[in-house]
Amino acid sequence: MSNLFLRACRGERVERVPVWFMRQAGRSLPRYRELRKTYGVLELTQTPALAAEVSIEPIERLGVDAAILFADIMLLPMAMGVDVQIVEGVGPVIAKPGPELQPFDPSRVAFLAETIKILRSKLAVPVIGFSGAPFTLASYLIEGKPSRTWLTTKKFMLERPAEWDLLMQKLSDGVIEYLKLQIAAGAQAVQLFDSWVGCLSPVQYRAQVLPHVQKIFKALGPTVPRLHFGTHTAGMLEDFANVECEVIGVDWRISLAEARKRIGNKTLQGNLDPTLLLGPWEALTQTVDHMLAEIDSKQKYIFNLGHGMLPEANDAVVKKLVDYVHTK
């Protein structure tokens, strides 16, 4: 078992920089694209043998230091009674938008445990489980589909604070049980994705979101490394890092040096702009060199993108990048 990634999560000094990528499972890789000609995204996630195959592909093709479970953040709302469809070119679409949720039903995501068990039996690198965070999940439930502004969500939060708090409580409880299920199945680290929380002000985040996130991380405990990731969080980074976790992930809108100063005694993850994978190799390596020169990259640092892998990424370039970072 290669524990480079896990050691970095826990703040130990490592011999080389560990690398993995958000959305490395799927999107840009050939086997995933081949499977998608036959299967929908949700169908793939609910078929353990295929989900495991997709999760394993980046380990074999790219040489990354951790595998992330191939799943979708909408699986949790589905396990709480929400009717979700993934619409091509749009994303998650909720049949009846609103805050109504049933208690989390673990039987509805039993396939995830099976996928994790397959991965643990076949991989020599750690397996990362994950969940969407309460705000990001709530935004999909209330908007009914992806949004660029999340106006309906913020309006709901401001005008109906008691209902908002109840929704966040229900989602937080669901996230806790969902991640505990993954850990019990063998996930060796878990990441909480708050992809859209950066649309809030620091005051809003601190008052109406942070307590629920703190509850999640405290409930999980330090059994496995806990990673907390969000985009557009530079304006609230101290608050975002004010949770009981081992790793804070950041996007490319803040320098690693600045992030290091502001996250406290935690491991830092990120923060390459994914679009650089589509540009000249020289620009990519210059950026990587600059990033790694800003911090002590051999301790409390994990190399990753500042958000998910783009479908247009060339896996040969990504493999070359992994090899390049491993030489640093």
The proportion of strand residues reads 5-15%
The CATH C-level name is: Alpha Beta
What is the total number of structural domains? 1
Question: What string gives the helices and strands in order?
Answer: HHHHEHEEHEHHHEHHEHEHEHEH
Annotated CATH topology: TIM Barrel
Give the termini separation.
22 Å
Provide the residue-averaged pLDDT. 96
Topology:
Elements: H1 4-9, H2 30-36, H3 41-45, H4 48-62, E1 67-68, H5 75-78, E2 84-87, E3 91-94, H6 110-122, E4 127-132, H7 134-143, H8 151-159, H9 161-185, E5 189-194, H10 202-208, H11 210-220, E6 226-230, H12 237-240, E7 247-249, H13 256-262, E8 267-272, H14 281-293, E9 301-305, H15 315-326
Helix pairs in contact: 4-6, 6-9, 7-8, 7-9, 8-9, 9-11, 14-15
Overall description:
- The protein is α/β, with parallel strands linked by helices.
- The chain has a single domain, classed as TIM Barrel (Alpha-Beta Barrel), CATH 3.20.20.210.
- It has 15 helices and 9 strands.
- The chain has helices spanning 4-9, 30-36, 41-45, 48-62, 75-78, 110-122, 134-143, 151-159, 161-185, 202-208, 210-220, 237-240, 256-262, 281-293, 315-326; strands at 67-68, 84-87, 91-94, 127-132, 189-194, 226-230, 247-249, 267-272, 301-305.
- Strand 7 (247-249), helix 13 and strand 8 form a beta-alpha-beta unit.
- The longest helix has 25 residues, at 161-185.
- The two termini are 22 Å apart.
